[in-house]
Amino acid sequence: AERIAQTDYVRFARTAGIEPSELHRWSVTHPAEFWSRVWDFADIRGDKGDAVLQRGATIRDDRYFSDARLNLATNLLGGFGPGPAIVAHDERGDRRSISWDELRIQVGACAAALRADGVQPLDRVVAFVPHGIEAIVAMIATVSIGATFSTASPDFGTQGVLDRFEQISPVVLFGCSGYSYGGKWFDTTERLRDIAAGLPTVRRTVLVEEFQTYIKLHRGSAVPDDLYPYDQPWYVLYSSGTTGKPKCFVHRAGGVLIQHRKEHLLHCDMGAGDVALYFTTTGWMMWNWLVSALATGATVVCVNGSPFFPSPNRLFDLVDQEGVTLLGVGAKFIDSLRKEGLRPKDTHDLLSLRTLCSTGSPLAAEGFAYVYDAIKTDVHLASISGGTDLCASFVGCNPTAPVHAGEIQDQMLGMAVDIWDDNGQSLRDQPGARGELVCTQSFPSMPIGFWGDDDSAKYSAAYFERFPTADAWAHGDFAAFTQAQDGPPGFVIHGRSDATLNPGGVRIGTAEITRQVEHDPTIAESLVFGQEWDDDTRIVLLVRMVAGHKLTDDAVADLKRRIRSNCSPRHVPALVLAVDDLPRTRSGKLTELAVADAVNGREVRNTEAMANPEALWAIASRPELH
Predict the structure, then answer these.
(1) How far apart are CA 382 and CA 20, in angstroms?
(2) What are the counts of helices (DSSP H) followed by strands (DSSP E) for the chain?
(3) Alpha-carbon distance 517 to 504, whole Å?
């Protein structure tokens, strides 16, 4: 009770004159007042303006803070926590840190260097770099001058990076010569050369290894503090590419900032003096989420490489070494520790650790029990779920509410979340019934749209046409309410309801994989789906061979090598099976969702629209899938 009373969640509720138990209901019934109060409570620096929420014809047309102006760098560099601003660790055990003052100096110098290279507001700057100090400095410098930042992890293959970056015509590319993972060095020099060659708009390529040389001449330049509109693009993030090249989400500066400030302050109870470590890469939106913690005055800890190298205790060693108060990991990491039988509670102090965030994929009830038994008994286990598409969370943690095994605690404040059946009816009074996770009101971090989707047709189809007679964002997740016990009902996320894959919490598009398969002349066609397996998702690749050819072990090995090289190690299928036929609609389109539903034991929708349903049942009965 004492810890709850000291949270910013409770303090914020009191400033609004609301009981904490009523805060979510109030936040969605009075959205303008709620978001205005979040701006003030979070001390967002800039001109808030007078128009907090302007309603449009649909929730997609709503506008937040339409006359507000701010500079992201001013907000991200405003903290004066007692510790360093950023600490970076690599697999060799090397530790680097940067103070708040030095961070401001480097951001000012980098901003001046970018301007010297002709970077203007709304230009795009991209980074093919590891998670580290240079990536964060480059991002803050980019947005300080009103330009837009986008990242890709260096474990992506050349084509995977080009499929993303070439769409947005960047003018500056930050790159790296290699990275370490699991004790091995992976040289990216050739890939970077090919990436730069494939981006004709790039005027300058900067290696992170030469970053200090790049900014040296400009040290002493002040951090730009020009104010830009609330809707100024901050990031371009990417969809998984289920039907072609990944779609480019254009995220607005003010919307992402206020969402992250709300989540950090109110839901994660993070502030100045805290130390945040989220194990992520620059290819996952949790990187964007983590670096926003600078705005609270917290120290950000960057960890490169494998979380299991040089030992499975690596992250817990860092918790004790750096005094980490918030540790974020993927659910698969927790499950791996559990299966290994590790008990960090017996080998580490972990005195500083208050919050353990889990995301990326659903955390099983056994994972919850393991955390409290083997890691720490009084930690706040914060299971959260959202997406790249909103760069935030729909459901997640509440520091004032109980944690129940296998459940996400609550809706995030300001997010009007529901779960609907196929007819658009709420399943709130049917605990356990699976449906589509929806949001029935607008929220500040709705993306501006997709890059190049000038009429918003693709954006509309992706989120607003699942229920044609209703005005709601349909997120593409299967979810269910839980039975309310001693508070509001919780949530269980059951995976994707669309064709996106989610192994180990990494969102992957099926088309990225099938495009690589198309290069094999012995394969007529292919289909990729995700199978629920061992509390995670495994990628299954089905291939129909050209007549006269068989799927050999060598052919499977070649496929996996090509996918690993051109996409990433995470794209490599766990299972490759040859089938006689692939199910398709009467119009000839392959039905990935139907296969995923059948194999995962869900009801298969619209079988009457299938030309060859017998192929579906033949696949579902394969012994390799059981």
Answers:
(1) 18
(2) 21, 31
(3) 22
